[in-house]
Write a structure and sequence with these properties.
It is built from 7 helices and 12 strands. The chain has about 250 residues and is of the alpha/beta class. The protein has 2 domains: about 130 residues, Rossmann fold, CATH 3.40.50; about 110 residues, NAD(P)-binding Rossmann-like Domain (Rossmann fold). The strands form 2 sheets. It has a 6-stranded parallel sheet with strand order 3-2-1-4-5-12, with helices on both faces.
Length: about 250
């Protein structure tokens, strides 16, 4: 098959490797928002498509027989665009999304909120020395915290000047339990903010915070568009692709 993988995640890289290894023609598309990203095997394109119209035109022009949306759980816009584009041109689409933390053993003790703004409000009621792990793109939602110490961990630096009271830590997972516990304890963090990204790379902070008595605020994932098939593992994604009858590009 000729498959377009909307990527940027570890699952997307694993899927690309499996597809290439068995002889499928794969192109992985990266948004280009992260500097020096980990690249998958196979062909890679970087940058946006120009909305639904651009994505639909690209899929048709490149004669893809299937699309796998393996983007980050919070990349809601590209998921919506993929649903609309694939529905318009009749190309099968499946969503590969790692399990979230709603079933985590500690999940019942987390404070769950629906967006970053609600996370800020909740955190203000729980502590005064926050640890922000919500990502770079919405970091400015916390800019009003210029009156306190804030530990903010990002992969790439933000494009604005953070308050002088903040400590900006640039790092990329995986993070071990011991390192996360030491970081939280050494900075006297008293509330942890994160998104329900799921996965093992950044999970250790949840247990470390719990063991140190630090409350955790978690932003829920955006809902998946209705009717979009969702799988939680690379193996399941391969099974779905194997079950597809490739569309004839000449019919479009």
């Amino acid at each position: 098959m000729r498959v377009l993988v909307l990527g940027g995640t570890g699952e997307a890289r694993d899927l690309a490797a499996r597809l290439v290894g068995r002889g499928d023609a794969v192109v992985s598309s990266l948004a280009g928002r992260v500097g020096a990203p980990a690249l998958p095997v196979g062909e890679v394109r970087t940058g946006g498509f120009g909305g639904v119209d651009g994505l639909a035109d690209h899929i048709v022009g490149e004669r893809y027989e299937a699309v796998v949306d393996a983007t980050h759980p919070f990349a809601a816009q590209i998921t919506r665009n993929a649903v609309a584009a694939c529905a318009r041109i009749g190309v099968p689409l499946v969503r590969l999304q790692r399990p979230g933390w709603s079933q985590h053993p500690l999940a019942r003790g987390f404070t769950w909120v629906h967006d970053v703004e609600a996370a800020r409000v909740a955190a203000e009621q729980l502590g005064v020395r926050p640890f922000l792990t919500t990502g770079r793109q919405q970091l400015d939602s916390f800019a009003a915290w210029d009156d306190r110490y804030v530990l903010a961990r990002v992969v790439d630096p933000p494009d604005w000047d953070v308050p002088v009271s903040w400590e900006l830590l640039r790092a990329r997972g995986p993070y071990s339990y011991a390192a996360e516990r030491d970081l939280i304890a050494s900075r006297a963090v008293d509330v942890l903010l994160t998104k329900d990204s799921g996965g093992a790379l950044t999970e250790a902070k949840l247990a470390a915070a719990h063991d140190l008595g630090v409350p955790v605020v978690v932003v829920r994932r955006p809902p998946v568009p209705e009717g979009l098939p969702v799988v939680e593992s690379v193996g399941e994604a391969l099974d779905v692709l194997d079950g597809l009858k490739p569309a004839d590009p000449r019919a479009r």
